[in-house]
Amino acid sequence: MKALKERILKDGRSLPGGILKVDSFINHQMDPYLMRQVAVEFIRRFASCNITKIVTIEASGIAPAVMVGLLMDVPVVFAKKKKPSTMGNMLSTTVFSFTKQKSYNVVVSKEYLTADDRVIFIDDFLANGNAAKGIVDLCQQAGAKLEGMGFIIEKSFQHGRRVLEELGYRVESLAVVDSLDNCQIKLKQE
Ligand code: 5GP
User: Fold this and answer.
1) Which GO terms describe its biological process (predicted)?
2) Is 101 left (phi over 0), alpha (psi -120 to 50) or beta?
3) pLDDT tens, residue by residue, 116-150
4) pTM of the predicted structure, to 2 decimals
5) CB 98 less than 6 A from any atom of ligand 1
6) Which residues face 90 on adjacent strands?
7) Per-domain residue ranges for the chain?
8) What pLDDT band is residue 83 in, cutting at 50, 70 and 90?
């Protein structure tokens, strides 16, 4: 995805601790046109899977997930970080946050993730794969089939891809950051 890579190099910022800040087009202010291009590419890659649902985690996965759901014409479910008082039957798991360096619970209603679902998980970043592992757990609890995972940006100097592929999952990412050393963004050349 040339447009995404160019945008990361133009507007992304490398922060200490291996964090890439993309607040001006993904994580705070969002570029819907780029998001649509991202969704079109995910759909191309997952075209052969018969998907019934897109799953993500709030908050930053929601925008790309909704765009994919819109273009695929399937519902989008996001795992919630706070259990709503009105939610009855639910599935729950614990996720370790790389950016906040602490664990938190996420929940999904049993009504919206079931054994009838064939799912792709969409998120903004793949770092160590902890958010994805949480979704793996929720899908297993629900009996849903997790067909694959799509990330806008993967950081290859962390080990999420290896962890998820070893678990047997298909991982697709649209831009791969090989290094953020010395405040320089180095993207994988494909
Ligand atoms: P993982 O669970 O794979 O370790 O980390 C992925 C999650 O942490 C993503 O949902 C994303 O919100 C956040 N994250 C991880 N690395 C980065 C980063 O470099 N920049 C930003 N903005 N978020 C990140």
Assistant:
1) purine ribonucleoside salvage; xanthine metabolic process; XMP salvage
2) left
3) 999 999 999 999 999 999 999 999 999 999 999 99
4) 0.97
5) yes
6) 109
7) 2-187
8) confident
